[in-house]
Amino acid sequence: MNKNKKINEEVDTDIFGSPQMREPAPVEFIPRHKTPAEIAYEMVKDETFPQTQPRLNLATFVTTYMDEYGTRLMNEAVGINFIDETEYPRVAVMCGRCINMVANMWNSPEKGAWKTGAVGIGSSEACMLGGVAAWLRWRDRRKAEGKTYDKPNLVMSTAYQVVWEKFCQLWQIEMRTIPITKEHPSLDIDRAISACDENTICVVPIAGVTWTGMNDDIEALDKALEEYHAKTGIDIPIHVDAASGGFILPFLNPGKKWDFRLKRVLSISTSGHKYGLVYPGLGWVIWRDKSYLPKEMSFSVNYLGANITQVGLNFSRPAAQILAQYYNFIHLGFEGYKEIHSNSMDIAEYCHKAIGKMKCFRNYSRTLENPLFIWYMEPEYEKKANWTLFDLQDKLMERGWMVPAYTMPKDIEDMVVMRIVVRQGMSLDMADMLIADIRNAVEELEKLEYPTPTCLAARKQEKQKGHVYTH
Ligand SMILES: *Cc1c(COP(=O)(O)O)cnc(C)c1O
What we know:
The protein has helices spanning 2-11, 37-47, 68-76, 89-105, 123-144, 162-170, 189-195, 218-232, 249-252, 320-357, 379-384, 389-398, 428-446, 453-464, and strands spanning 117-120, 153-157, 174-178, 200-203, 238-241, 265-271, 283-287, 299-303, 306-310, 361-363, 372-377, 405-407, 416-421. The protein is of the alpha/beta class. Helix 3 packs antiparallel against helix 10 (320-357), helix 10 (320-357) packs across helix 13 and helix 12 (389-398) crosses helix 13.
């Protein structure tokens, strides 16, 4: 009888009939007893069930769609640790090939079979590596010249991504930021140059500014730094943060000079998991040639039976993303990337136009440089509206869309904007659904007789600053 009961328990995997489904999920301690795999699986799976569908998440730059074969390759490689080069030597070779292709895509002048670069878990690690290299090169030069090297600084616009704040804080580098303003929606080159001095390790322009979707004018910066060098003798390099632009410009605007074609660009970083079209996390950093990668950054490790040279902040990391990047390069080719990104651009422009036509909104920029854009509330309309873009964000969330509203960086922090990032996985049909949902949401919000809490808060803030609303 006991034996029968046991058998029954094993066959009876009625997940929602199990006692576990009546218990709260573990929060603080590892549960003492076991839970059958099917039930544990369901519990974990269901935890994420009510979240937005990743492809409706228009807030992120990161890949939310890959084709079946790319996905299959990644799943099959899920047990492979990238760092085990001795065991999986072909992964290291594939990584080197990806570095070559990314470097050549950015017009690397480096000769030789293998270009100088590194893989990272994302742009953040890639930016850190580019930043550290710039700092060490500067320090070594100052040392050689017998000068002080205790006050390094870095110059970029206030529209930086948070990784640069982390970099400056962790390595104790002074961050000199140049405000983006309504007149200067991207890096103000003149002000950037005036912020430079002999302690500037590099200037960091951005291709694909997270906040606005625009590009800093890197060619103009290169020229200005050249003139600055001629005038002062101070030689300041550029690291380009091309987290999203690095995989857009080569395909959609190949004539534009922003990469190693510019003399002072010594390193560039990008996210393979943004417009490189790989699931997270993957980043790349490339140096102009190996002389710009300080020796202190290459670690020779004797690991599991071989001597390997490693550049990176991480050690163990999944290999799957590298396989997927290599797969994308083979499968899509230059033409494939160009087609996908052109479609994203067309769909972004379509949405931009539709938003621009609505009387309550105004686009931040007239044209798009990347497949994303921001808009704000038309100022006259805003004075009378009983709602804000934060309310619209909530309304759209009800329909499954994640379209973020946020305030701009300091100096224009009273500006609230909304952003759409178009990526692979968004069709014109989906864009039509989104636009219809935005129109319907606005229509509902316009029926409000009383201001929403976010609207009241905004008015209170305005009043404190001395502007009084007309009603
Ligand atoms: C996304 C982004 C980063 C950070 O990249 P991750 O890949 O998320 O680590 C850095 N800079 C810019 C401009 C970005 O858009």
